[in-house]
Fold tRNA (adenine(58)-N(1))-methyltransferase non-catalytic subunit TRM6.
Amino acid sequence: MADNGDEDSQYKIKEGDYVVLKRGDIYKAMQIQPRKKVIFEKQWFFLDNAVDHLYSTTFEIMSGGTLQPKKPKDTAGSNGAKEAGTDNRNIVDDGKSQKLTRDDIETLKEQGLKGQEIIQQLIENSATFRDKTEYAQDKYIKKKKKKYENTVTILKPSCRILAMMYHGREPGKICHLRYDTLAQMLTLANIHAGSKVLVFDTCAGLVLGAVMERMGGYGSVIQMYPGGGPVRAGVESFGFPAHFHDMLHEFPICHVNPLLAGTLDTTAKDPNADEKQSNKAAEEEQNQPEAEQQGSPEERSMETNAGDDAGQEQEKKEKEKRKEAKAQEKKVKLEEKRKKLAAAAALLESRNADGLVIASRFHPCPVLMGLLKFLSPSRPFVVYSQYKEPLIECYTKLREHGGTVNLRLTDTWLRHYQVLPNRTHPVLLMSGGGGYLLSGTTVAMDRPKPAGSQRAEEPAPKRLKLTDTEG
């Protein structure tokens, strides 16, 4: 029974969880915090009442911003025959068919009418609703529900949902990476539990989070990052447990070449420490003459201001203590950063990674050629780019350099379909492109041998046979 309770708890919303709010095709990632006002699609509410409910529950937004689970729709009354027209040819959209004005609708809202009741009022006051076909009536009701129903669905974050959220709201942050392309990347790179994967990601951490989710907390992920530190906004939205972060390592991309050359020193401490110590010694030397002058007879007349001087000295001491505390914190952070760098370097030095995933706004060619050296033979790699020209250059470079097989440059095509009775067809609006993927497999390269050594290593019986025929 206890095991069943633990299993059920992971499907329930808890305080502090990261969730995704959904209304229609709009998504928004959020953390559940007590008494925190959330604004979503021009409406504000609190998420406190959602705690202890199951994920994927649809809530109605009540007055005061409270959430209440939506009751299941009673379909018994809707099974009756609806009055509908045969075609829409005689309907003219002149804006005069609806008797209710905007002020009337606002008055209905103030009276406390819910979305379904307002939609019913709109239907009853529409002069052309009964003349529309059954399909047109369904379309009208769906459109009005989207506008007037105050509902929100709370979902558990996943790779697919977050990819759809980013692609719909801020595609530029993820280099216009579409969710079907991300799924292909995970498949082509053979991401699985227990593997060691290198990830170079400038897509707000979405690709990194997708790799971590697929690995399930087992194995190791090394994030290669540009700049001063890694960006993991997308990883936080997944809401991973603490043990997922134990397998995550970070390594700056600027240290790849020194690591390959064997010149990277991970034991080095803060290079500015010696300069700071010399500056501190110089300040102490400057303060020594001032201390000697304080004992001179000229300053004895200032004994009346001894109380003020004592207060100033106390302030100076407090400032010095604050500076020392900040310096200590900085020292601890630098030591932690050095340890993380050394741990990631130790993983990379063995050069036995099981996969490489690159999705970046930078030109992928130099990054790919540098990171391929950390992969074991017969391991997959995949590179994403919004444009095909950089990947064509990578393809040409890999063919010239060797060490890879099964190189493929592909683009993804996705189209949504409306599936309804007697009106199934492709959706009119579709995504123009999902980017391009370059994938392949590493192989061990044979070093070329000089011609003289090949001749010397020729089998002895063959040489004897040749000499016999000549004689």
